[in-house]
Amino acid sequence: MCIMLNMYIREVTSARKHGPDAVYLQLVEGYRDRETGKVKIQILHSFGRKDKLDLEQIHRLADQLCGYLNPEDQPDLLYRH
User: Fold this and answer.
1) Is 77 among the domain residues?
2) Low-confidence spans in the chain with pLDDT less than 50
3) Which of 6, 49, 52, 76 has the most CB atoms at less than 10 Å from its CB?
4) Number of domains in the chain
5) Contact, 36 vs 13, CB < 8 A?
């Protein structure tokens, strides 16, 4: 059993021996484990490397999420089909 805290985009930096560090984006959900009381995360989706981000994928996700909001609550997104 757990208590959900929040969902957010997390950046994870991976150090590389040669070249710049790689930064990865993940959609994660934070929760508190009832047994231990510790905050843990669950990776819901990995978007891959930030420098190779599929912006169409992000726009589709944002559009789908906005579909669940009332029209007056929807953000004014810069991207339009």
Assistant:
1) no
2) 81
3) 49
4) 1
5) no
